[in-house]
Amino acid sequence: DCVLLRDHKSEDVFVSNLKERFQHDLIYTYIGQVLISVNPYHELGIYTKQHIEIYQNTSIGEFPPHLYAIADFAYRAMLHEGKDQCILISGESGAGKTEASKKILEYLAYSSTNTGVAGNIRDRLLQSNPILEAF
Hints:
single chain
């Protein structure tokens, strides 16, 4: 689940590890607090309400790598520090950046329903979805 850079000193070994995980529908891999994602190009059933609840209030690495763990980390940091947080999503065309953004927004919308400003945050997040679709 977590790749240690000292164990993967060559790009070939690292890519081989990602391929092996991908063949088992394990599309996420951690490198420290960085999440590497490989687009499966099909639905895996890993973005359910139950998955959201699993990753709420957990530490990165406590459960298998997932986009929801990164979203939860940023959300809790925002609440704890009282400062804006940023999640950087990068990749080539077709890599799944827009889908990843939507899943993060879904997670934040669901998680924010437990706070006093839930309606405002949820509505603003969900309103941004059409903007993402434009890209």
